[in-house]
Design goal:
- The protein is globular and about 30 Å long.
- With 71 residues, the chain is α+β, with helices and mostly antiparallel strands.
Length: 71
């Protein structure tokens, strides 16, 4: 998952990338960019059709803007 996200971030034609994925993929990136363990990340609830927004700042840096937002 991380490799695919990194590749998208470096090759996308736009600054905004929308990724539709399983909650497990979202949790891997929450753990990656927050520094929390996988077990801790697994405690997050990710609803179907919710939005999690992660702003990529660099190769291994990001800001988590929202998790499980239901508009």
């Amino acid at each position: 998952i991380s490799t695919a996200i990194d590749e998208l971030a470096t090759t996308a034609d736009s600054e905004d990338i929308l990724v539709c994925c399983h909650f497990g993929a979202i949790l891997t990136q929450l753990a990656r960019f927050s520094g929390m363990s996988a077990a801790t990340a697994f405690g997050f609830k990710i609803d179907n059709y919710s939005l999690t927004t992660i702003e990529l700042l660099g190769p291994n840096a990001a800001r988590i803007l929202r998790v499980n937002h239901v508009p």
